[in-house]
Structures are given as C-alpha cells and as structure tokens.
Write a structure and sequence with these properties.
Length: 298
C-alpha cells in the first residue's frame, strides 16, 4: 500500500543501517531499535520549535456524536489522564474517529496531554522501572547497567526531557482500537503498553495479521495528517518536532512543550525545556532499589 511505502521511506531516512545478523534475534533487534530511538531523541533536542500559542481543546467534547473510548487508568496510579489536544488537531482527531466508526472500529484514547510532573511520574513508577530494568539486563545478558545506560534506554522509552515529550506539547495521543462487534482490541502484536521487541512499528516478531492491523491503523492516521512514531506502535502526533522531522518538511514545530492549567498554556522555554526531568543520580538510586526488590521477591 502507498501509505506503508511512504512510512518506510520516511523512517529509512533516520534509521541507522545495521547488519541483518544483529537484527534477526529479539535481543539484537531490541538493541538496534533502542539505539535508533536514542539517536532520534538527540536530533529532537536540536530541532527548531516556533510555538504558535494555540489553545487546548477537550477530546471528550470534540468527540460528541462519535464512538470514542478513553482509558480509565491513572499515570503512576496518581495522575488522572488529561484528554486534551491543541485546537488545530481537533478536526484531524474527529476525522480519524469517524473513519474508524465507519468500518466498525472504535478509537480508544489511552493518553493525551501530560504535564512535566505526569511525565516524571512514569520514571517514579516502581513496576514500570523494574520492568524496564529487567529488559535492559536481558539486553546486557544479565549485567547491571550503568546509570547513564539506564538513562539512555529510558530516554528512548519514556521522555526524560520536556522538549522530547510530545504529550507535553499537547500534540500526541496514545491509542488502542476496539472492534465494535466483539468489544476486543484490534490485535497489533501486543497491548498498550507493550515494551519488548514487538514494540517498534516494523517489528518482525509479530504475525502477518498483527502487522496488517498496525499498517491499516497507521495508514488511516497518516491520511488524516498524523504521523506514527516508529518505535511505538500506539503513538501518533502532528505539528510537533517528531512530525516535522519524520516528514522532512523543513518546517519548525508549531507545538512545543508547555504547561496546561485551566484554559491557559505557558510555554516551557530553553534551557528549561531540555533539562533532565530527573538527574542521573535518580536513576542510580532507582537501579539499586529495583535490585533490592528483585532480591526480596526471590
């Protein structure tokens, strides 16, 4: 399909070519993709942003008359999710939801805007931190990672700077898709959130049916002006640095990191936008605490 080819051409421009020998195993593929994502994030630290100041709009209100579902979970079991997007993306959101409804699907919004505190809260979730540490130790064949390496992996999986969190820009949504007839998720090779070698959009470790579902959903989003994030099959955004870079538009991002309070947005400007949400020492402590939890669980 044309949309799939377009996607592959776009992602090829940023992905480092690796030998197939390292990519055919789950561990090799995981390492390759994590390094690609890390390199991408470094580029995003320098990508120009020309904040347009657009207000935020409730997705719940915008979806009136459409079948749309929303996650009922909280971030870090603490922060209620904020289902808002920038005003300029609302018609694109409605168009996706409408087309999904027409083919018997229901868009489920898993996450929308995140404040810096909400983004920081992801790294403070012991279950998530433990899971990622186990995955990193699997990658390192049992070795305990240095804090800097753990920070690099978390940077690929969770935004660790406001500038890199497009949820903080109000320009991204995480999604699942539900089959109206069965009430079950359309199978894309894992649930939201899947953190494994199946997570990247082009993972070879999923079935042909799961891959077809991913590409069908991705193509639908692309037709309505969204951009898939290559390293997570559930993340879509528009108007931010991810999108402009991946689509090679040459334009600065019009949406940058900001705080959304009430009906007011306040931009997070340099150098604060590029500061680590937590220092390296936090991750060093986090590794030690996780290892202690692993020991106590034996």
């Amino acid at each position: 399909m044309e949309g799939n080819l377009e996607y592959r051409l776009l992602t090829d421009t940023i992905m480092t070519s690796k030998s197939t020998d390292t990519a055919v195993t789950p561990r090799g593929f995981w390492t390759q993709k994590m390094e690609e994502a890390s390199e991408f994030m470094e580029k995003m630290r320098k990508y120009p942003i020309a904040e347009c100041g657009e207000p935020m709009v409730s997705l719940v209100d915008a979806a009136e008359g459409l079948e749309v579902q929303y996650s009922t979970t909280k971030i870090n079991d603490q922060y209620p999710r904020i289902f808002f997007l920038r005003q300029g993306l609302i018609k694109q959101f409605q168009a996706v939801a409408k087309e999904m409804n027409e083919q018997g699907w229901i868009l489920k919004v898993e996450d929308g805007y995140r404040s810096p505190e909400m983004q920081r809260g992801l790294s403070h979730n012991p279950r998530l931190f433990d899971f990622i540490l186990k995955k990193v130790m699997w990658e390192l064949e049992g070795a305990i990672p240095a804090p800097e390496f753990m920070l690099r992996r978390l940077g690929a999986l969770l935004a660790i700077r406001c500038r890199l969190g497009t949820h903080i820009s109000g320009s991204a949504i995480d999604i699942s898709v539900v089959d109206r007839n069965t009430g079950k998720d359309i199978d894309r090779g894992g649930p939201y959130i899947e953190i494994s070698e199946r997570t990247p959009m082009d993972s070879p470790f999923i079935t042909p049916e799961e891959r077809a579902n991913r590409y069908a959903i991705m193509d639908l989003f692309h037709r309505h002006g969204w951009q898939a994030y290559p390293w997570e099959f559930w993340h879509f955004s528009a108007g931010d640095c991810y999108t402009e870079f991946l689509q090679n538009t040459g334009k600065p991002a019009r949406y940058g990191p900001m705080r959304f309070e009430g009906d007011k947005i306040t931009s997070i400007l340099p150098p604060q936008d590029d500061e680590l949400l937590e220092p390296v020492e936090f991750y060093q402590k986090g590794i030690a605490e996780s290892l202690e939890r692993f020991k106590n669980a034996q």
